[in-house]
Amino acid sequence: MQRYVLDHPVLKKTAITDANQTRHITHIRRLNPGDNLVLCGSDGACFWMTIDEAEAHRVTLTRGRSLPKLARQRHLSFAQALISPEHFTMVCQKAIELGVDTVYPLITNRTVAELNPVSFTGTDERNTTHDAVTFHASMPLSSLDLTVFDTVLVAYEDAPPRTLRDALKRVDKHGRLLVVVGPEGGFSEDDLAVLNPHATFISLGQRIMRSDTAAIAALSVIMHELEVIG
Fold first, then answer.
1. Which among 17, 46, 67 is the end of a domain?
2. pLDDT tens digits, one per residue of 192-205
3. What is the Cα–Cα distance from 39 to 46, expressed in whole angstroms?
4. What does the alpha-carbon distance between residue 8 and residue 93 come to, in Å, rounded to a whole number?
5. 18 lies in which domain range?
6. Beta strands 177-181 and 76-81: pairing type?
7. Average pLDDT estimate for 26-32
8. Are residues 53 and 110 in the same domain?
9. 151 lies in the same domain as 181
10. Cα–Cα distance, 25 to 204 (Å, whole number)
11. Are 51 and 35 in contact (CB under 8 A)?
12. Averaged pLDDT for residues 41-55
């Protein structure tokens, strides 16, 4: 069941105003007044809602019966080296669908793309919370404090024969997990020197993947291993 998420608790009368969610409701699912959907608040409480009005940029609803709380990997952060804006936007959207709650756009030695955060946050470039997901302003890899995470997993083409699934067996699912994906040109020696003291380097297999594909592949495995299998 598709669930929509607010950045505040669900009230008895609630409105969804996020453009991405309202478009999904009205144009993709084509829901109308009287139809139902599941809505979850920032506290994880979920409810069966009835649509009162459905407009392009605002959907108003009435709260119904309560449902099981939204289950998600609450401490999954994602650091993606900047790639082309359209691919960066897409991979951020998919990352959020796969349970990421914090996004760090990274500038590495081989980063060539520039990011306009408006394309995926709808705000100017600053640390911001959007739909219960925190987006940080783009930063050099060396400025990212890796010590605040319990586990740092780095997708790296020259990693030792350690699969992501093997690495996840040693991860505390309730701890703070960071997944790092590099740019199209890969990590430089200077990048690796920053990552090495704190990170576990993992392989995603023998296939050559674009940066955005590698990110989605890694996060999909994490969701399956930590949320489905447990």
1. 67
2. 999 999 999 998 88
3. 6
4. 20
5. 3-67
6. parallel
7. 89
8. no
9. yes
10. 35
11. yes
12. 89
Residue 95, domain CATH: 3.40.1280.10
> % helix / strand / coil in the chain, to the nearest 5?
30, 30, 45
CA distances, 200 to each of 9, 99, 167, 195 (Å): 37, 21, 8, 9
The DSSP secondary-structure symbol of 226 reads I
> Residue 26 carries which DSSP code?
I
pLDDT in tens, 168-188: 888 887 789 999 999 998 999
What pTM does this model have? 0.66
Burial 117-138 (b: 16+ CB within 10 A, else e): beebbeeeeeeeebbbbebbeb
Percent of the chain with pLDDT over 90: 44
**Structure tokens of 52?**
């009162």
Residue that has been written with the tokens 């109308």 in this structure: 32
Instruction: Assess whether 26 and 85 both reside in one domain.
Output: no
Q: Are residues 80 and 61 in the same domain?
A: no
Query: Whose structure tokens read 């999954």?
Result: 76
- Render pLDDT for 95-114 as a digit per residue (tens, 0 to 9): 888 888 889 999 999 887 55
Number of domains in the chain: 2
